[in-house]
C-alpha cells in the first residue's frame, strides 16, 4: 500500500471515475484538488465541500505544484499542460495504477480492440457461479477504486489502452489482449504499433498471457514464452472447431456452440478467451461451462432487438471501430439481404478493411454522420448517404423483406450525433420497433 500522507494531489477529470479517486484519497486522509476542462462536469454536485476545484480549463499552477497528478484516461499524457508538469518531475498516474498498488486479491486483466466487455463480464459471471467473491470493473461499470471498498477474492478488470498508458504496477494473475485493430488513431499519431504497445503493456509481470492465435499482434513483444496460452479458430490451446461447431480445450470437446445463447464467430472467440482466463485463476470448469450455456450477452453487442415477419434487427452499436464491425461481419450468414448501417466519427480510421465483408450482391449500405461519405465511398453502387441514422432507417424500412437482416454496426464512435453508443443503440431499437 502506498502512503499519500502530506502529498499534494490533483485529480484531472471528474465524472464517476474522478469521484472514485476523490473518495479514495479522502479515505487515505488526503484532500485532493480537482480540475476538469469542462465548465459543468458530471459529478460536480457530489464533491465534498472542502475539495477545491477548477473547471473550464487547466490550472497550470496546481499541476506544476503537485506531488501527484491522477489523470483521466481520456486526457493524453502528451497534452501540453500535463507534459509541462511531467517535465518538472510531477508523477502522473491513472486510477488503475492507484488500484493496483492497493489490491490484495489476484487480478484478471482484459484488453483488446473488441470484445473486452463481453469477456470481462463472462469471467466475472464464471467466478460468481463458482462462489468466488469477485469484483468486476475498470473500463466497464464500476470504477476500479470503488471495488476496494468491499472484500473480494478476485478482481476482473476491463482496461483500455488509455488506462494502460498510466499503469505501472499491474501484476495480473492472468492477462489477455483479445485482438488489435485500428482504433483511436487520433490519439496515436505514430499509428497502429504505438496503439499496440499501449495494449501489450498489460502483459508486463503477468503470470499467464492469453493471446489470439489468429492475430499475431496480440503476442507479447518478446514473443511466445512459457506464460503464453492461446485461443483461435482451428488452432490454439482453446479452439473453435468450425467444422463440428464445438469449443475444444487441448483438443478435447468441451461444448457445442448450439448449446450457447451467444452466436457468431467473434463471440465464440470471446468464450474461449474467457475459458482460458478462468482456468488460469482456478475457476471451476463446471461453473465456467454453465455460464457459457446461459449467458445472453451484453446490450448493444450484436443484440437482437426486434424480429418481425422474418426480418431481424440487430443492435451492434458498441461497434465503435472498424475491427469491431469486421468481427460482426466475419462469418455472418444472412439468407436475404444485409442492410448495414454505418457511420459516425471514424476517429481517423481506414475503412477499407471492411471491403471484403461488404463485397457481396446481397449487401446494401446506409451511411450517415460525420464520416458517412467516406463509408459510402467504399461501395457507391449499393450505398445511400443520409445525415442521420434515423433518416437512413426510414429509407431502408420499406425495402426489407423476409430473411433480411438490418444491422447497426457503425464502425464509428457515436459522439458526433449521440451522447453515447448506448443512446445510439437505444434509438436504433426504438426505430426498429416503429418501422419494422
UniProtKB/TrEMBL annotation:
The keyword Cytoplasm applies. It is an enzyme of class 6 (ligase). It catalyses: UDP-N-acetyl-alpha-D-muramoyl-L-alanine + D-glutamate + ATP = UDP-N-acetyl-alpha-D-muramoyl-L-alanyl-D-glutamate + ADP + phosphate + H(+). This is UDP-N-acetylmuramoylalanine--D-glutamate ligase. Its main location: cytoplasm. It is found in: Cytoplasm. Belongs to the MurCDEF family. ATP binds at residues 112-118. One of its GO terms (cellular component) is cytoplasm. Pathway: Cell wall biogenesis; peptidoglycan biosynthesis. Residues 300-412 form the Mur ligase C-terminal domain. Residues 110-278 form the Mur ligase central domain. Pfam families: Mur_ligase_C, Mur_ligase_M, MurD-like_N. Keywords: ATP-binding, Cell cycle, Cell division, Cell shape, Cell wall biogenesis/degradation, Cytoplasm, Ligase, Nucleotide-binding, Peptidoglycan synthesis. Cell wall formation. Catalyzes the addition of glutamate to the nucleotide precursor UDP-N-acetylmuramoyl-L-alanine (UMA). Its EC number is 6.3.2.9. One of its GO terms (molecular function) is ATP binding. PANTHER family: UDP-N-ACETYLMURAMOYLALANINE--D-GLUTAMATE LIGASE. It comes from Proteus hauseri ATCC 700826. The keyword Thylakoid does not apply.
